Amino acid sequence: MSKVIYLDSKRRRQPPVPADPPGAPPEIETPSPARPSRPLVTVVMVSYHTGPVLEDAIAAVLAQDIAIELILVDNGNPAPVTAGLVARCAEDPRIKLATGHGNIGFAAACNLGAKDAQGDFLLLLNPDCVLDHGALADLIRLIPKTAHPWVAGCRIVNPDGTDQRGSRRELPTPWLTLVEALRLDRLAPNHPYFRRLNQHDQPIPEAVTQVPAVSGACMLMPVDDYRMLGGMDEGYFLHVEDLDLCFAMTRMGGSVLFVPQVSLIHYRSTSDASIAKVEWFKAKGFTRYFRKNFTGLYPSLFLTAVNCLVWLYFLMRLSSLARTAVTDRLSRMFRRAKGDQAADPSDVEARKRGRKGWAA
């Protein structure tokens, strides 16, 4: 894979530059930076209108104390951001960039980045996640040598240090989704059939623990295991593809591991992508996930009812977003009338932190 790959919307290489005409003076080659040794870990980071935290995420990856390569997949960033990524790529031989293909979805972008991975391990890392120094080396060191195949995630925390939900969770089944959506767990809190999806409010284990699912914000696995699974299912555009991968890993007889000794900060909702579109893709992803993995295991009528519940939740979220938008607009109009043009930063941050659903 070249340092910068320019792709069109069909992920084909652009036509090669024509050769120099006969008789043209030879081009003087400038020395290129020394190539790094073969990386231990390939980090794939998919970026779409991420925001300023992208620079912190890149810097944290490059500061790791093991041999890495960083493959940035530009899924349609603004032109100035893309230009900055091209410049970073030219400065550091460990960085490669795929750009020009537009927004092909998170799963497809992960597969695009992983296609030419040179490392023994593959880390899928969100562009709004900042690794602690030494986190990658610790993750690899703590994985049991007997685990194969495997995928692992770490403890994910908010900027204030609190545990973020989703870093360890149950695999959603149609029944558990119904339990979560209707909060049926309140009927029998300790019953295994009424357990909640997210486990962030449970005591943190002291050692590496096998769990049903980890977050796609940070997924480490051997490159060969990722390819054996066939990568991410590109039928998912955004959200749920990580759960589907964990489901596939379990079905293949592999292990899904949670490593509590390692943590990272996840700055959620830094992208300026439409929240309504994100919720649409999440609902669409869950209906695909249920049809793909549970058809024949649940009565078709029950599956249809759960999928209807997913779309009902989506409509409720749209209604909530619309009310919030109207309230914000009225608030801004009121402030203008009072001559106060400044927005309250705490309100903006609160709205960003509110971009999550029952299965986020």
TrEMBL record:
<feature type="transmembrane region" description="Helical">
    <location>
        <begin position="296"/>
        <end position="315"/>
    </location>
</feature>
<dbReference type="GO" id="GO:0016740">
    <property type="term" value="F:transferase activity"/>
</dbReference>
<dbReference type="InterPro" id="IPR029044">
    <property type="entry name" value="Nucleotide-diphossugar_trans"/>
</dbReference>
<feature type="region of interest" description="Disordered">
    <location>
        <begin position="1"/>
        <end position="36"/>
    </location>
</feature>
<keyword id="KW-0472">Membrane</keyword>
<dbReference type="InterPro" id="IPR001173">
    <property type="entry name" value="Glyco_trans_2-like"/>
</dbReference>
<keyword id="KW-1133">Transmembrane helix</keyword>
<protein>
    <submittedName>
        <fullName>Glycosyl transferase family 2</fullName>
    </submittedName>
</protein>
<keyword id="KW-0808">Transferase</keyword>
<keyword id="KW-0812">Transmembrane</keyword>
<dbReference type="Pfam" id="PF00535">
    <property type="entry name" value="Glycos_transf_2"/>
</dbReference>
<feature type="compositionally biased region" description="Pro residues">
    <location>
        <begin position="15"/>
        <end position="25"/>
    </location>
</feature>
<feature type="domain" description="Glycosyltransferase 2-like">
    <location>
        <begin position="42"/>
        <end position="174"/>
    </location>
</feature>
